[in-house]
Specification:
The protein is α/β, with parallel strands linked by helices. The protein has one domain: TIM Barrel. It has ten helices and eight strands. The longest helix is centred in the middle third of the chain and has 18 residues, at 141-158.
Length: 264
């Protein structure tokens, strides 16, 4: 089995729910990127727009000002790992890809700004399409989520995005109740069966907090996050998006080696 890819979260925002304000200087962001490389990261996911509950909207210009200098500085520091940028805006996608990013992580699955699909096709860049909506009503959350993600994938194909460059993300933490999120987690294998690589992004989110029980700070939810990483591996996901790179890298490798699915 292919080794699980670990995507490390690097937010350059002042208001992200877990690490807001920690890495909103270029120097701090580069330092964190280099430490993630040492911890075994495969993809560094740079975010310039917080989507936490109650987030503050910003302009595309502000988003570019937050992300482009960080992407350039990470490359100048010698990092060769993939860099994705968390954006749903085509103008931001173009700017960061020109700056040295290699992937786009779209939390609106290409429906907010369809031109983003044109941009990634032009750059031959992979795109992560995360399930999101302007509503939260489902007849069957798993089936509806899969149908809507497939519609987004088909739209990307029409724009010229190669199938191997299309990733799907079930959107844990977005427009779903806790019960619906649990149902999606229990049915992840139905999404991975669709033939697209799947990214799972549960790190430190509300679902993990509520399943742990009680009040926990965001950075005290890493052990709970590991449980979701293992569930994801069992279901066939190809990557996880996490805050704690080292812990998830180790857990995934040990689990897969014990299962005889990874050499070493």
């Amino acid at each position: 089995m292919e080794r699980l890819k670990v995507m490390g979260i690097l937010n350059t925002t002042p208001d992200s729910f877990s690490d807001g304000g920690k890495y909103n200087s270029v120097e701090a962001a580069v330092k964190r990127a280099l430490s993630m490389v040492e911890e075994g990261v495969d993809i560094i996911d740079v975010g310039g727009y917080s989507t936490r509950p109650g987030y503050t909207e910003i302009t595309a210009e502000t988003e570019i000002e937050r992300t482009v200098p960080v992407v350039k500085a990470i490359r100048e520091a010698g990092v060769t790992a993939d860099i994705s940028v968390d954006t749903f805006r085509s103008e931001v996608a173009r700017a960061v890809l020109e700056a040295g990013a290699t992937m786009i992580n779209d939390q609106w699955r290409g429906i907010y700004d369809e031109k983003i699909l044109d941009v990634v096709a032009e750059f031959d860049a992979p795109i992560f399409l995360m399930h999101n909506n302007d509503h939260s009503t489902y007849e069957n959350v798993t089936k509806d989520m899969i149908r809507e993600l497939k519609e987004s994938a088909e739209l990307a194909l029409k724009y010229g995005v190669k199938k191997e460059n299309i990733w799907l993300d079930p959107g844990i933490g977005f427009v779903k109740s806790r019960e619906e999120e649990i149902e999606v987690m229990q049915n992840l294998d139905q999404l991975t069966a669709e033939g697209y690589p799947v990214l799972l992004a549960t790190s430190r989110k509300r679902m993990v907090k509520e399943l742990i029980g009680g009040e926990t700070d965001a950075d005290d939810r890493d052990a709970g996050t590991l449980a979701t990483t293992i569930i994801g591996i069992e279901a066939g996901v190809k990557a996880v998006r996490v805050h704690n790179v080292k812990m998830n890298r180790q857990a995934a490798d040990v689990y897969m080696k014990l299962k005889g699915e990874l050499n070493g």
